Amino acid sequence: MLHKTRGIVLSYIRYRETSIIVRVYTEEFGLQSYLVNSVRSSKSKSNRIALFQPLTLLDMVVYYKPDRDLHRLSEVKTNYPFQHIPFEVAKSSMALFVSEMLTKTLKEEASNPALFHFLETTILFLEQAQTDYENFHIVFLLKLAAYLGFVPSNAKEFEDQLRENNYPFLPDQDTETALNAFLRQPIGSPVKITRAIRNELLDAIVAFYGIHIDGIGEIKSLSVLREVLG
Q1: Contacts of 215 (CB under 8 A, 6+ apart)
Q2: Looking at residue 183, which CATH number applies to its domain?
């Protein structure tokens, strides 16, 4: 049966010679996988593969059967063509990191309108922001943790959980102050921190996710993000 839904692209893998399997977080059905044919063919008349880059916002008409793991698309288009994320190195690196973290953490195949709205709103912030987005990836992960059910209430709780799990996180006062600000303030609030503090917090937050989500494994985009933002 055909259904309309909005979606957020997380990632895709190549399938056979010209197709892909794309992971999309949808408004109606949660996390879903779709087989898309002939998007990598040299004979393709349009650059459809661009629709499936990290965090692209889609309008879709999909075939959906609840007993299937792999679905098909009937129609797909972007509802907000990006002008900045794919073309600015800092933003594209953040998008790649965020999409990898979402791929590893979102498991639920059910509608969650509040989570979808959060993701859509924060992605649009990253696309539109001209200033005060250098800490986007850090604040994003802290806010996402609230929807996943394990956000710390303050810096001390965050530190205690890491120490209890043998992660050597010993922040100074500036780091602790920044962490509390990120937990309490909305994305885009100006919080000035050094490169060293940003990297320390990022590593600690990824470790914190590892405590709460089994099998999160290596985050391959992390080293690229550090290099770009350094």
Answers
A1: none
A2: 1.20.1440
